[in-house]
């Protein structure tokens, strides 16, 4: 019976790896790494070293008594133009911004002179996911729902019989 137990464990392991491999993993990127969102740092250099993809998150960590984060368009980014105060992200000191669609997005600090003189501006280009999420049909969802308990039961039976 030991060989049945080994086979059951192997089948369960293969099944779980196949299921997990179909899940796309998002990455959280701390803007500015350990420095966070602060002045006198090249966010262009920081961003140039990363291949952002749809589903990733930008994490802005900063002193909320000194800085803020605005999502802007390309022209506002180039000119360091601060939009209406209603468009600022919550000034919490910690903002997570998901990259939901491919293309460019731009961010600036709206505190006077921080964008222009301290370089607090970030542009990123999110690439499409390499593999779009698989759309499961009702039949494949039912098959998955039925197969997982079967493999777990096989593993339990093999373990008990050993």
UniProtKB/TrEMBL annotation:
The keyword GTP-binding does not apply. Residues 27-128 form the Phytocyanin domain. GO terms for biological process: response to symbiotic fungus. It is a single-pass type I membrane protein. It holds the Pfam family Cu_bind_like. InterPro entries: Cupredoxin, Phytocyanin-like, Phytocyanin_dom. CDD domains: Phytocyanin. GO terms for molecular function: electron transfer activity; metal ion binding. GO terms for cellular component: plasma membrane. This is Phytocyanin domain-containing protein. It comes from Acacia crassicarpa. The lineage of its organism: Eukaryota, Viridiplantae, Streptophyta, Embryophyta, Tracheophyta.
């Amino acid at each position: 019976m030991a060989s049945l137990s080994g086979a059951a464990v192997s089948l369960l392991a293969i099944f779980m790896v196949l299921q997990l491999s179909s899940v796309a993993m998002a990455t959280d990127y701390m803007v500015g790494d350990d420095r966070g969102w602060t002045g006198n740092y090249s966010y262009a250099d920081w961003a140039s070293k990363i291949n952002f993809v749809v589903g990733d998150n930008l994490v802005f960590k900063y002193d909320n008594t000194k800085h803020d984060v605005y999502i802007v368009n390309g022209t506002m980014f180039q000119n360091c133009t601060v939009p209406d105060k209603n468009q600022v992200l919550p000034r919490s000191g910690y903002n997570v911004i998901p990259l939901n669609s491919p293309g460019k997005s731009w961010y600036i600090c709206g505190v006077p002179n921080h964008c222009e003189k301290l370089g607090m501006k970030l542009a990123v280009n999110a690439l499409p996911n390499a593999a779009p999420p698989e759309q499961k049909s009702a039949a494949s969802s039912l098959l998955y729902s039925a197969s997982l308990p079967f493999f777990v039961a096989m593993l339990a039976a093999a373990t008990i019989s050993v």
